[in-house]
Amino acid sequence: KWGPFLSALGLGLSIQSNILLMYLALPLLGILVYSRKNLDRYGLLLFGGVLLVSLLSMFLAEVKFGFQTVKGLLSMAASHSETESSRGILGQFFLYVSLLVKSLSGSLFPKNIELSVAVILSTILFTLLTLKQRRLTPEIFVLIYLLSFTPIFFKTADNIPHLFVGLTPALFILLSMTITKIWKTAFKIAAGALLILIAYSNTAVIFKENGKGQTLFSTQKSMTITNEKALIDKTYESREPFSINNVTAPLYINITWTYLYKWYGEKKYGFLPTYVGKGQEGQADALEHKTVRENLHFLVIEPLWGVPTRYKDEIMIEEDARTSLVEETEFGEL
Predict the structure, then answer these.
(1) CA 84/CA 315 separation, integer angstroms
(2) Which residue of 138, 156, 169, 221 lies most exposed, with the fewest beta carbons within 10 A?
(3) Which of 130, 141, 235, 111 is nearest to 180 (CA)?
(4) Which residue ranges in the chain fall short of pLDDT 50?
C-alpha cells in the first residue's frame, strides 16, 4: 500500500540531497520489474507523481540555470582517466569485483580472501536457489541492496573505495538469514561452525591490528592515538609556551589537533599552544588564534591523502620565511 509512495519519496529526496544518488533509480527499477505482478496502474501513477513532485524544485532550478548539473553529469560520464582507459571495460569490472570482495572480506575472514569469496558466493547462490515465490522477499531486498552500488562503483571504484563500507551490513544480514535457514535443517553443526569460525577470525585480527588504528578504510594510517599523543608530548618537551601551524587533510581544518591538545595536552601539561594557521571561523571549537609565532614553534604535517602537495609546499615556504628549522621528528607518517 505505502510502497510506491515511500520508495518514490525516498528516491526523490535522495537525489535532491546528492545528485549522484540518482544511481539508486536503477536498483529501484529492478525491484519494480521483479515485483511487477503486484503493482497496479494506481501504484505506478502514484510512484510517478510523488517522484515528480519531490524533484520539481530541482527541475525548476535546472531550467533556470541552464541545466548545469545535467551538463556536469554528462561530462563526468563521458570522461575517462588514463588508468580507467588503459583497463578497459573488462579491467574496470574486475577492479570493481576485487575491491568489493576485499571490502566484504575485511569483516568476514580478513586474512583469508579465498574463504571469504567462497562464503559470499555460497550465500548469494543459496539465497537465489531457496526462493520459492516471485515476490519481493526480505532476502531479495537485501541482495539488491548488496549489489545496488554497482552502477556508481563500476565507474569510480578506484577513486572512492571507502564507500564499499556501506555494503558490509547487507552481507551480514543476508548471511545471518542463510545461517538461520541452515540451522533449521539437519546441518546445525555446519551453521554453528561457520559462526564460530567468523567470530574467531575477526577476534584474532582485532587483537593483532587494534594497535595500528583503522587499517581497512583508513586514508591516514599513521593518524593513530599513539602517534598523535607522542607528537603532542614532543611539542611540550621543553615546558615552554609554543605555537603550532599544520598541514591537514582535509586542508586547513584544525579540529583534530584542537581536540587532541585540549583533551590530552592541556590536561597533562596545564596549558595550550596558540595556533597561527588559517582562521577557524565556524568551527565548533578552536585553539587561540594568533598571527605572531612564539619563539618555540612547530609545524605539524599530516599524511596528505587526497591533498595536492603544492599546498604543503606553500605552507612550508611561509614557515621557512618566518622561522628557522631546528629539528624534524617523525611519528609514523606524521
Answers:
(1) 33
(2) 138
(3) 130
(4) none
